[in-house]
Specification:
The structure is a single chain. By secondary structure, the chain is mainly alpha-helical. 51% of the residues lie in helices and 3% in strands. Strand 1 and strand 2 form a beta hairpin.
């Protein structure tokens, strides 16, 4: 038998939920749902109008900076052209232009071949006779011959230079061995020289 509890009526008057029955006895307010939907629609309309206005302002500014349209500044639809076929003649022309491109050019490798070529040119100058100025009779001689002449004739003596007094604890630097015996070959050049030695020995092995 259902009995009415007086405390239930007091809780309903105060607006407090009544959990004694195990379910909600009041329905959702339709007015609140309608107000939320109307506010959502108004918000969406306001955002759309603001976005449209910002877009119009940006487009007007871009059009003002670009200037009036002309035959040199017109949008072109390239889709009807499709994929353009390759032209062998044009590719050959581009290859010729690339081969004749002035220095300095982009290196096609890590630069090892360029260094090897530089050392080869230096070896030609250091190990052979060549003209410096034919009109004055100046000739470049091999470095080995130059060293022999220097060993025979000696170097010109420079005038003595006055040296400042050493401070306490300082010592005059002395050179015990030559600082360098020339430039060092790169690993790329050493590998090439080793490969050449191997190639030169192969005919002897076959014999």
């Amino acid at each position: 038998m259902f009995t009415h509890n007086p405390h239930d009526s007091e809780q309903e008057k105060r607006g407090m939920p009544n959990a004694s029955k195990g379910f909600e006895v009041s329905d959702a307010r339709v007015s609140g749902v309608v107000i939320f939907l109307v506010a959502l629609c108004i918000f969406a309309v306001v955002v759309a109008v603001m976005a449209y206005g910002v877009g119009k302002v940006l487009n007007a500014r871009m059009a003002k900076e670009d200037g009036p349209p002309s035959r040199w500044a017109q949008p072109v639809d390239v889709r009807p052209l499709g994929n353009m076929p390759s032209n062998p003649e044009l590719q050959n022309k581009m290859t010729e232009l690339t081969d004749r491109f002035p220095m300095p050019r982009l290196q096609t490798d890590d630069g090892s071949q360029d260094v090897a070529d530089l050392h080869a040119r230096e070896d030609l100058l250091l190990e052979n006779y060549s003209w410096v100025d034919p009109s004055q009779g100046k000739v470049r001689i091999p470095i080995e011959r130059a060293m022999e002449l220097i060993a025979q004739r000696g170097l010109p003596v420079a005038p003595a230079v006055e040296q400042a007094l050493l401070l306490t604890g300082d010592q005059r630097p002395t050179i015990g061995v030559p600082l360098t015996n020339g430039f060092a070959r790169t690993s790329y050049e050493l590998d090439q020289a080793a490969a050449q030695r191997v190639e030169s020995k192969r005919p002897d092995q076959h014999k």
